[in-house]
Design goal:
Strand 1 and strand 2 form a beta hairpin. The N and C termini lie far apart (about 55 Å). The protein is about 35% helix and about 15% strand. The protein has 6 helices and 7 strands; from the N terminus they run H-H-H-E-E-E-E-H-H-H-E-E-E.
């Protein structure tokens, strides 16, 4: 009888842990669903990795995406031609991101408007952003669309985020 009560208590405790952490019950039973692995990864990333940390692949940890709730990594510098940072149209920036294969990854993309806001907030820790305030240098593209077919950009000197004509030129920092 005691064995049964102990097992029942263990099951109840694991169920409570699952409610709190989202993965403990599945892990205890040996079930590793995608959601369970993601929850475990998110918790471990939050507690161990510092924003701005250089990862083993060379990318920079930028925080948890406000859109996907998964770890977000940025390239260590803006898109460039040689040593010169490039300013480009939004459509070109999207095409470059689709074809980017660097640091062992081919899933680079423009950040969403929410992710770009997070990059701005963490710009000092991540490093390498143009914060000069000069147009177009201090502006960065997001993947998000604004009103009337415009793209959303953010000024990394003031923090202003808003619609921008997609044929304008802005800087690009890719994320994954």
């Amino acid at each position: 009888m005691v064995n049964f009560i102990q097992k029942l208590s263990l099951v109840a405790a694991l169920t409570l842990c699952a409610d709190a952490f989202g993965f403990a019950a599945a892990s205890a039973r040996g079930v590793t669903s995608a959601a369970a692995r993601h929850a475990k990864l998110s918790l471990s990333t939050k507690s161990v990795t510092k924003i701005g940390a250089r990862m083993p692949d060379g990318s920079i940890y930028a925080g948890i995406s406000p859109d996907t709730h998964r770890p977000l990594y940025a390239l260590p510098r803006d898109e460039s031609m040689g040593d010169q940072p490039m300013k480009m149209h939004w459509h070109i920036a999207k095409r470059i991101a689709e074809k980017k294969n660097v640091l062992g990854h081919h899933d680079w993309r423009l950040p969403s408007a929410g992710e770009l806001r997070m990059l701005f907030k963490n710009r000092a820790a991540i490093g390498g952003f143009n914060t000069s305030g000069d147009y177009p240098g201090g502006w960065y593209w997001s993947s998000s669309k604004g009103r009337y077919g415009n793209a959303i950009g953010q000024h990394f000197s003031t923090g202003f985020q808003g619609d921008d004509y997609p044929m304008g030129a802005s800087s690009v920092r890719l994320v994954r």
